[in-house]
Amino acid sequence: EDLKPVEPRALRKDVSLLDRQQAFGYTQEDTKLLMSPMATTGQEAVGSMGTDTPISAMSDRSKLLYTYFKQNFAQVTNPPIDPIREELVMSLVSFIGPRP
Question: Residue 81 pLDDT > 80, yes or no?
Fold first, then answer.
């Protein structure tokens, strides 16, 4: 079933840049440490993935919905996905439910 075509909406001129940044979760730290270096040098800024902020439920300020959810995981960039030749360092075993 096809969707009906939607007419593009005109860009709202009455919304400030700060309001737009807050709506999408940008902070002053994001702008200073990530966006500015990318805009001035054209290269991707280097940063960490960790966060040392308290959990959102304990905050007095309203937060974006996705900050209330946390996931425990270890992210590995460019992992060796070759379980045959790298059997000692690679496992395809997955657990669902409580930890064994």
Answer: no
In a domain, 2, yes or no: no
Model pTM above 0.90: no
| Cα distance between the two ends of the chain | 45
Question: What mean pLDDT value characterizes the chain?
Answer: 80
Report which residue type is found at 98.
Answer: P
Interior/surface letters 68-95, b for 16+ CB within 10 angstroms, e for the rest: eeeeeeeeeeeeeeeeeeeeeeeeeeee
Q: Does 9 fall in a domain?
A: no
What DSSP designation does 33 have?
A: I
